Amino acid sequence: MAVLDHIEFDTHETVAFCRDAASGLRAIIAVHDTRLGPALGGCRMLPYASEAEALTDVLRLSRGMSYKNALAGLPLGGGKSVIIGDPLRDKTPALMRAFGDFVERLGGAYITAEDSNTAPQDMAEIASRTRHVRNMGFGPEDNPSPVTALGVFYGIQVGLQVLGLPLSGIVVALEGLGKVGMDLAERLHQAGAKLIVSDTSASRVAEAVARFGAEAVAVGTAHRVPATVFAPCALGAGLNADTIPELGARMIAGAANNQLATPEDGARLHARGVLYCPDYVVNAGGVLGIPLPGETLTMPQRMERAAVILRTTREVLDHAHQAQIPTNVAADALAERILQQGCRRVAA
Ligand code: NAD
């Protein structure tokens, strides 16, 4: 398996392959960029079909974290880690502690956090071996999802301003009613939007129908329904050569990471006249709400920090409009510029 020549390798500083026979740990830690500070990014555990699939995922996600942290104005670089395995079958405290040993060996270049299929108790196990862990508390203020949902809501507001449309009365097609999606649905409902929703969980769909008067559509069809906004809040890579021609919305803003299957899909959206609010710009609320070293933040203070997204989304959309380029290209260019020039603090 080629690593240095991998199509997603980009300018990664370190890619560490971690193996611990005693606990069965197989993991990859990717440190993309530490020019702005230590590389912060979550640790996810998934039963990847192959090591190659895990490598592609971690490389893409860690670069995304560099860009997300840079645009959000944080003094942090970008990294990510993946543990290869079935979280229900293979996850043990010993495995998480072994992972913590590998994080420790990187000497603080990488800071880990919760992500898909890792939880506060896993972070506590990791923290027994390394101090390079964030957001490991068990309190309600340690849940990043409400801050992420607020940030996505702000992204939607800014996108609609650019289109010259009000939020009240518009239709939003929302895919995924999980920790972020359900909270976002509530905010949109309160702001007067009409909701069309899909989720693989029938109970979550039933909840949104009951609470918000949402209309339910079949899984895999939310992107097609006529709407002003499509908000992907489930899985990545949903915007691709097959789905983009089918889109029923004029604008896209959602929480899912890596929504574009390839960077060319940004150009496809641009050519179709669909306003894409880049994922890592609008879903930065979670990372913005994480306290920096030495800080303690209440939930209201964390929520306040999401307001930065009003400004960064506007900046990206304005730049794309002025330069007549796809919005994903505009976001990457702004993030690259910050990486080269050094961290900037973004006032909300
Ligand atoms: P979650 O696991 O709580 O929710 C995901 C939801 O999507 C679940 O309800 C699941 O049933 C549903 N789902 C799965 N496959 C689906 C499909 N094919 N169609 C429709 N629904 C489907 O996750 P979350 O924390 O709400 O995060 C949602 C997305 O946002 C993820 O991609 C995550 O990586 C990203 N994200 C989350 C945060 C955060 O703070 N939680 C921050 C940044 C990015």
TrEMBL record:
GO molecular function, one term: nucleotide binding
Keyword Lipid metabolism on entry: no
Classification via SUPFAM superfamilies: Aminoacid dehydrogenase-like, N-terminal domain, NAD(P)-binding Rossmann-fold domains
Residues annotated to bind NAD(+): G176, L177, G178, K179, V180, G181
Active site: K80
Keywords: NAD, Nucleotide-binding, Oxidoreductase
Any single biological process term in GO: amino acid metabolic process
Transmembrane segments: none
Record PROSITE patterns: GLFV_DEHYDROGENASE
InterPro entries per the UniProt record, alphabetical: Aminoacid_DH-like_N_sf, Glu/Leu/Phe/Val/Trp_DH, Glu/Leu/Phe/Val/Trp_DH_C, Glu/Leu/Phe/Val/Trp_DH_dimer, Glu/Leu/Phe/Val_DH_AS, Glu/Phe/Leu/Val/Trp_DH_bac/arc, NAD(P)-bd_dom_sf
A Pfam family recorded for this sequence: ELFV_dehydrog_N
Sequence ranges assigned to domain Glutamate/phenylalanine/leucine/valine/L-tryptophan dehydrogenase C-terminal in this UniProt record: 142-345
Assigned protein family: Belongs to the Glu/Leu/Phe/Val dehydrogenases family.
PANTHER family associated with the record: LEUCINE DEHYDROGENASE, VALINE DEHYDROGENASE
Protein name (Swiss-Prot/TrEMBL): Amino acid dehydrogenase
Source organism of the structure: Gemmobacter fulvus
